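Demo today. Your pick:
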Amino acid sequence: MSAAPPLVFITGASSGIGQALAAQYHQAGWRLALVARRTDVIKNWAEARGYSASSYEIYSADVSQPDSIMAAGRACIARQGLPEVVIANAGISIGMDSREPDDIAVMAQVYATNNVGLAASFQPFIAPMVARGSGRLVGIGSVAGIRGLPGHGAYCSSKAAVISYCESLRGELRASGVRVITVNPGYIDTPLTQRNRYRMPFLLAPEEFARRAQRAIAAGGSYCVIPWQMAIATRLMRLLPDALFDRLAAGRPRKRRQGE
């Protein structure tokens, strides 16, 4: 009997980058384990594309609740087997103003999804992947994690934490055969970015991002920025003296706060 196609587990699969990654992997012949709160959206999308029922499974989970997403991971292993690739993609982006008491709760909400949720997404798969001696854990960061921007305190710091967390995990799993890969998107044309009120250079369609991301994940490097132009831009940003960077960022439009 022929071996089953490889399996990829993707969180935040109901829209944007997650949905584009699902389409890219399906096109490449992979089986899909798709996770989101809006499972009906994923089901309607997959059926509209004519995906066979045997090619995907849908798991309902709230990534901001560790027990929920870890249960989805365990269910995936029980129903479909241990994935070759796990992509912790689910994330939220909300502007904040630390002078506002309500925005401290917004920061906690962003961290619960973007950071604790990412670690909880990986957790069910780490021990079995180590036992198998292979696997790829992919954290979706952002170029926003390279430097902090006014009004973006929650999102920028959460994505900086994604980068550091994945680096830490990579060191822990270095000799295990399990690779940890950080993928940092620049500006991708998704519902998350379409509400932004500032210029977004090198904007990519989600389908093109997914194509490049799959290629980078297959290559197995530890860290990448997509598109490459943003990789150069972020290196330059890191080199700017703080005083100059602060002046350049001061007049930049801020991310919309919750309710705006």
The CA atoms of residues 18 and 67 lie 21 Å apart.
